[in-house]
Amino acid sequence: MIKLISYFLILSSQLVTAQVISTRFEQSKGTESPTYPEIIDWWKRLDEKSGKVKMLTMGMTDAGFPLHLIVVSNNGDYNFSNIRKNNKRIILINNGIHPGEPDGIDASMLLARDVVTSTYKIPDNIVLAIIPVYNIGGCLNRSVNYRIDQNGPIEKVFAAIHKTLTSIAILLNAIQKMQERLQKSFTLPIPMFLSTTM
Questions:
Q1: Which of 22, 30, 65, 185 has the most beta carbons within 10 angstroms of its beta carbon?
Q2: CA dihedral in degrees (9, 47, 124, 78; nearest 10)?
Q3: What is the tens place of the pLDDT at every residue in 126-153?
Q4: Among the listed residues 130, 132, 128, the one whose alpha carbon sits nearest the alpha carbon of residue 72
């Protein structure tokens, strides 16, 4: 009888936690995705409710909002030096790179919530590092009139922002320079044999 009562209490507490931290995607039955302020607010609430989740601020973005990093760890250790020292694997999940593609944003919220409610357990040697939204400027520019050929969500975001395009051009230039250096390091000097006789 005591086991049955304990099981009921654990199950009911998990259901209450899941309802309190449900996502807009779930509430709309898959037709809506949260706005940027809703995303950040949701992660803050999850951080407050669970010792398995920590929301960190990493610095400012070109949109004028901080870039956040969410760390999900079974033992509540969010110190990356300790995590590396303990030989744990860090999996980086970068969401919202392309602002019109919210699937990863929603999926990461569902995954973290399921870890918190013990619906899903990540291995103890794994730590998740989640960027909730990388392209914040793109995520802020929403309308029902954007990407009309895209199948959901109801409100979509515009595909390009001038600051984002500038950042992408800088990034592509840096990648090209890096590739050139790598190519040089793998290029072996080929001796030239010139024949002086014909």
A1: 65
A2: -150
A3: 999 999 998 888 778 765 555 544 554 4
A4: 128
Instruction: Supply the pTM of this predicted model.
Output: 0.66
Structural domain boundaries in the chain = 20-175
CA torsion through residues 164, 170, 171, 173, sign: positive
Using one digit for the tens of pLDDT, what is the confidence trace for 17-42? Answer: 444 588 777 887 877 788 899 999 99
CA dist 194 → 188, 191, 197, 198 (Å): 18, 9, 9, 11
